[in-house]
Amino acid sequence: MQRTTYETQVFRKPTTFFLGRMRSSKALAMPEERLQKLIAAAGLGSRRHAETLLRAGRVSVNGRTAQLGERANPERDAICLDGRPLAKAQPPLVLLLNKPAGVMCSCHDPEGRPIVLDLLPPELASGQGLHPVGRLDFHSRGALLLSNNGALTLQLTHPRFQHSKTYRIWVRGQPSQAVLDQWAQGVPLDGQPSQPVGLRRLEQQRDATALELVMHEGRNRQIRRTAELLGHPVLDLQRVAIGSIALGELPEGRWRRLDPQEWPDPHHRP
Which CATH class is domain 31-85? Predict the structure, then answer.
């Protein structure tokens, strides 16, 4: 797949501040941190993924297999993943990608299908620790965040933070108002209730209807499964915003760096 090089202006000051803070911290004794936090800071995935690595016994500290919940000091301790030293923490980086349909929301695909990292230039696709924040299924398109910031990944994906996601979809047929009201109230899936959905009709044609959905949960293929249950299968699904971060005029298959002021505060807890 051809790589794209589109990006907007990079904001330098916050990154410089981060690096300065890291340099000054070296003059002081760094406190011990939980290993999952250090792994995430090294750009190897979210803290949840780091916990999976720890449970699998793939992380060691000073030659000893580490345990979940263990703490370490990266300046003093030899922390390794699969026998390789843990990389130093990367400056925080967040990208907004307009993912096309037919691209895997993954850093690797065993079947060899295109992945989101294929859409980035080589200097970002490897060595930066970028990973998708959340998911957007293979046949769907639209807004997807990529980050090497484990705290931000947790903040954007954990259900307790209730970040909204806005979708524009086309469904087959002309759903009645009763069907739309049922959808808005939340349609149970797998025997479990679903949260209410913000829903409005955007456009109606003879054989298809455009809808806007605003959701605060993201169960696997939730929109497609709900539409199928209600008798109006999805024809096209595009995510147009994640919280206040909107696609705007970003072309499909392109990306831009986010100004740190656009990120939600990873330390905020509702």
Answer: alpha beta
120 beta partners: none
For 122-145, what is each residue's pLDDT tens digit?
989 887 778 898 889 999 999 999
Of 29 and 219, the one with more pLDDT: 219
The tally of CA atoms less than 13 A away on the side-chain side of residue 260 is 14
Q: Which of 153, 151, 97 is nearest to 125 (CA)?
A: 97
31-85 with 164-242: one CATH topology? no
Let me know if domain 94-160+248-258 sits in CATH 3.30.70.580: yes
Which residue ranges make up each domain of the chain? 31-85, 94-160+248-258, 164-242
Task: Report pTM.
Answer: 0.71
DSSP lists the bridge partners of residue 214 as 166, 198
pLDDT band, residue 47 (cuts 50/70/90):
confident
Residues marked active site are found at: 137
- 1-26 burial, b if ≥16 CB within 10 A, otherwise e? eeebeeeeeeeeeeeeeeeeeeeeee
Query: CA-to-CA distance for 77 and 145, rounded, in angstroms?
Result: 32
